[in-house]
Here is the input.
Amino acid sequence: MTGLPRPPQAGTPMLPTDTFAGQVVLVTGGGTGLGKAIAVEFARAGAAVAVASRSAEHRQDGVAAVEAAGGKATGVEVDVREPESTAAAFDAAESALGPVTVLVNNAAANFPIAAADLSPNGWRAVERIVLDGTFFCSQEMHRRAVANGLAGSIVNIATTAALAGGPGMAHSAAAKAGVISLTKTLAVEWAPDGVRVNAIAPGLFPHDDLPDAIKAARDPSVDDTRQPAGRVGQPHELGWAATWLCSPYASFVTGHVLVVDGGNWLRRDFAMPPVRSISDQLP
Here is the structure.
């Protein structure tokens, strides 16, 4: 099995380098992992980037990555669970770079656990960041775009587990399913205001800030053999997907959920393997 071809290497331009010239992009959770990869690709396409995170260290890492790619960036502190913090983050981004016209709701929380063992606090911790945070940031972005008479674009990072269920990830899958529903609702409500809203549902994209418990549950040596594509995703591929969805080249695309997973969520074995309980699979 040869699988799908590998993408062009990281750093290869996917869009013209002036695609987002004069625009400001705010990426929540933009200092690590997939969020940082997304922030870098926007910078390569000409955007100034506000790296939003609760962690000062993560903000610094994200800014450094954007600047290394030749972009302009600032770090803004945010707790997406709190509307007041969200508004302050947009204020800080606007003061440093200008009005935000693109928002990527990437901030998330997750940890593998059987639903029977999930505590109320564990449920709330994930739901508040994933679903509440996506709504509060989106609402703030829309309010400011309308007030400033600017068109805008929002991309929400979902997951394929939101489409098919997520055993061992009930909290995250449910919250991300809410994000997908929210994406479609806001797309209809806000299109007359010039604000597009789309989502990306990634598959397996290994990255440095995966929770230790998730890393322990996976075997990187066989990841490629578990994918129809014969490989996992590369973080910059997700960055390309986000930049395209927010670009003028996708100006008639709104309310769409773009699955980027090499076909894995559609996989069904001809001879199904034995069922193993989630409790047996978790470390």
